Every structure is written in C-alpha cells, then in structure tokens.
Amino acid sequence: MNSIQSFAEDSNAWPFAEARKLLKRLNGKLPEKGYVLFETGYGPSGLPHVGTFGEVARTTMVRHAFEVLTGMPTRLIAFSDDLDGLRKVPDNIPNGEVMIPHLGKPLSEVPDPFGTHDSFGAHNNAMLQAFLDEFGFNYEFKSSTAAYRAGEFDETLLKMLANYDAVINAVLPILGEERRATYSPFLPIDPETGVVLQVPVVDRNVEAGTITYETEGGERVEQSVTGGQCKLQWRPDWAMRWVALGVDYEMSGKDLIDSVRISGQIARAIGGNPPANFTYELFLDENGEKISKSRGNGLTMEEWLRYAPPESLSQFMYQKPHQAKRLFFDVIPKNVDEYLTHLSKLPEQDMKTRLTNPAWHIHSGDAPVEDAHLSYNILLNLAGVCNTEDKNVLWHFISRYRPDATPENAPMLDRLTEYAVNYFQDFVKPRKSYRAPNEMEQEALRDLLEVLQKLGPDAGAEDIQTEVYEVGKRHAFDDLKAWFRTLYEVLLGQSQGPRMGSFIALYGVEETAALIEKALAGEDLA
Q: Is the dihedral of CA 83, 89, 92, 95 positive or negative?
C-alpha cells in the first residue's frame, strides 16, 4: 500500500467515506465484470440544470477517491431515460405547441421544439453531453431508447416478467387505491401511435416473454416485453438497470429515499444486488423551493458559466452535500473565492491535508498551479466603481497593482475579469443604490481623504487597511462594521463590499480620494 492509500483510508473527506462504503459493499474484491461501475441518471423531460451536473461532478469525486483508495478500474455511465413518455410540455421552452400532438410518446420520438435535433430527447441529451465534455468528465453516455431497442436489457426484462408478483408487490404499498388497481411495471408501447401506454396487464406468458393488455376499445393485445416493445415504470426500470448493467454505485436526492428502497427490493427479487447509494440534499431556488427542470426555476449550467468558472460550480457541489442549499445567482461570488482560496493553499499542504481540500477533489488530484492574484469580489467591486463593460478597463488597474500579471501569464485572472464584468452588468449594477453621507459620516470621509492624500499613490494594501481602521475608530460609529458599511453604501452603492485596503490599493489611492471628493460634493456616483 502506498502512502496516499494509507491517508485515503483515514481521510474524513466525504468522497473517501463513500469510497470506503463502496469497497465494503464489494467485500474488498473487484467484481467479476472486471471493473467497478458508477452510474448517474438523467431524465431529459426538461433542459439540464446544474443539479444534473452536480450529480455527475459528485459521482466523479467519489469515483476518483475510490480509484486512489483501491487502484481498481472503474467506469461511469451517464444514463438518459429518453424512452420515457412525455407527460407535459415544459414551461421554459419555445415552440411548445409542436410537442402537444406527441404527448405520451417517448422523449426520443417527440419533435425538437428548438429545431436542432431529431427529437426533444436528443436535444436535451446533446446539451448534457456538451457540458460534461466541456468540463472534461470521463464518462460513457447511454440512451435508454438505444439500450432497450438493441436488446441490451432483454435478459433482465424477462427476469422481471418471471418475478412479476414480487416486483409489483414492492411498489403497490406506496400507491393510492385507484392507482393500485391499474398498476403494471410494464408499459407497452403502442405499435401504431408510438405512445407509451399506461394500461393494466390482464395476462402474462413467461415462456413466450409477453404480456397481454386491454385497449380502451376492449381489444386484447399480446406484446413482447423485449426488443423495445415495452418499457418499465421508473422504479422497476431503475432496478432493472442496476442489475442489467451491474451498477455498483449511484447517488440520488433526498426525495428519492423511498424509491431507492423499493428499487433495491426489486433488484434483489430478480437476483441482483442494489448499488451503494449516497443521498444528497436537494437544491433550492431563491424562494427556497425545490428546483425543477420542467419549471426552469433554477440556474442553468450556461447561466453559471456566464458568471464564473466551472471549477466554482464544482466547489459548490463539493461543500456539505447533506445540506440543502440555495442554488441562485447570489451564491456564485462566494464559491468562486472559496475555490480560489483552496486552490492557492494546495501546493503548500502535505498529502493528508490535500485529501481534505476541495480543490484536490475538483481536479481529481491534478490541480493547476496558478496565482489568481485577486479575489472575485474585489474584481466585482472594481467593475462597479469603473461601471464598465470592458475587461480591459479592469486590466488597466490590475496592471498597475500587479505589474507581474498579464492576460497571457494569468489566464485564471483574465477569465475572472470577463466573469466579473458580466456579473456586474447583470446583477450588481441594477441593484446599486448610493446614498449621501450624514454629517458625522462626512466628517469621517474628510478625515479618510486627508489620510489617503498623505499616504501617496504607492501605499500598500496593509498600510491602507490600517489607516482606514484608525479613521473609523476616531469617529462616533457604533462599531467598525458601521464605518465600513458607510464606505460601501456611499462609495460603492451596496451594503457589503471588499476589504477596503486591498480595494483602494487596486483602484488607486488617488482615484479613491477623487471618489470621496465626489461623494462629499454630492455628485451622483452612479
């Protein structure tokens, strides 16, 4: 055993805890198939959002931790249930009327309202894969439609049919009385209309591998359960995939705890072993409501990536997966700066500490070494004072503050300037609200102005910070927080802000003095 494996055995980072749990499920041995299989599921009934990405990111973290711990080969399948029938038209898509005549058909057969792919399912699958590819995830995409129709699930579907009573009895206790009367784990696909039918099964023939159902017109139809002629209800379908593919690990949201239990019961009934499972808390929107793909009430992946690097999104996913978190625009700056902090600490940490560093897990142990030079929040405030849409304006100030940094040798910083300009224009600028200082605050600002003029343009951030503190202490503020809040509200138009010493050093002592003069003169800083 090498040293990193020994540290992994004792690491309290949650991906390593999950890796040890999976190793226990495997009894410490490599499965007969020759690899350990991780799976993530995606229902392409709506556009992918960052919750979908989060499941892949977190699973990848556990996968890498498991590889470090054991050295066993692994695979990751991103599975799309695109054979599922479209139940309603999502609220957040264009041209939804083209989908209405195709309600009930598999998502892989519903026309694409965006007009770019063969089907709505294909469009959403492509969006998911494009993002996962852009981020560099190592995964294999699998389509439910393709797998069913290719016969990949046939053997397990026949096991489902042979154990029909055990399968149906696992699900019935959670259904209402009316639903129990008509429930069938098998959903035949109408050969004429292509609709996934929700009809009761009136007979089944295990030897022939068929079910018989009754149409609304009273006609009895016998149909094979193999070859894509039937699909399974989602809980039996989940269990079937676990067994057919040999899934060893899959995580899911807190809302699926009962479904995990039921699908596990079904998997055991057909001779399989359910995977190790990790239950994560759900993401909430700005109002504290659960995020839904069909409602589109959460952040999309494209939106997050307009304002921040993808690593910051992984930082958000890594932190406290057992805790419900708001997934909205205002969480972005904090997660960018937390990621940058963890990344900067990594090179100086010993191996034991590195294994608890989120940046190590985000980059699968191979994190880039780069000094970001400035925090995201500082850049946001600089963009705010400059009121700019041009990142070159930010670089004008950055080059003076950090002459060793250029867009070429500091690519992370260069990316952050673009993100900061976008975030400022879309979220900070519309909310800015400057106020005039009262008499006591005017006196303190005049004091600060004199101090800055004496310091000169070459003063360092720490010296400036000390002087700002001293000015606040000399005046009748309730506490220093009130003094800094005054600076933020009067000079920046917001209630919170950066470390003033660092900000003034970046923006410029003379420029800040000019800003104070304008505020004291009653000019509109907006």
A: positive
What are the CA-CA distances from residue 114 to residues 34, 42, 88 (Å)?
41, 20, 17
Nearest C-alpha neighbor of 107 from the set 205, 195, 180, 236: 195
Give residue 202's pLDDT: 94
Q: Are strands 210-214 and 201-205 parallel, antiparallel or unpaired?
A: antiparallel
Length of the chain: 526
Minimum mean pLDDT among 157-171, 370-384, 410-424: which range?
370-384
Architecture (CATH level 2) of domain 439-520: Orthogonal Bundle (1.10)
At residue 297, does pLDDT exceed 80?
A: no
pLDDT in tens, 25-77: 999 999 999 999 999 999 888 777 777 888 999 999 999 999 999 999 999 99
| Chain CA centroid to CA 444, Å | 45
The closest of 426, 423, 394 to 407, measured between CA atoms, is: 394
Alpha helices in 227-318 (DSSP H): 234-245, 257-269, 301-307, 310-318
CB 237 within 8 A of CB 264: no
Kindly indicate whether the domain formed by 1-152+281-353 is annotated with CATH number 3.60.21: no
- CA-closest candidate to residue 509, choices 461, 443, 475: 461
Q: How far apart are CA 316 and CA 247, in angstroms?
A: 26
CA–CA distance from 115 to each of 93, 100, 379, 476 (Å)? 12, 15, 39, 64
> How far is Cα 56 from Cα 250, in angstroms, rounded to an integer?
10
Does residue 130 sit in helix, strand or coil? helix
For residue 345, give the H/E element and its range.
helix 332-345
Q: Which amino acid is at 421?
A: V
Cβ burial 145-165 (10 Å sphere, 16+ → b, else e)? bebbeeebbbebbbbbbbbbe
Find the largest Cα–Cα distance for the chain: 94
Rounded Cα distance, 282 and 158, in Å: 35
Domain boundaries along the sequence of the chain: 1-152+281-353, 376-431, 439-520
Q: Is the pLDDT of residue 308 over 70?
A: yes
pLDDT category at 429 given cuts 50, 70, 90 is: confident
Please tell me the predicted confidence (pLDDT) of residue 469.
Answer: 95
pLDDT at residue 271 in the model: 96
pLDDT reading at 478 higher than 70: yes
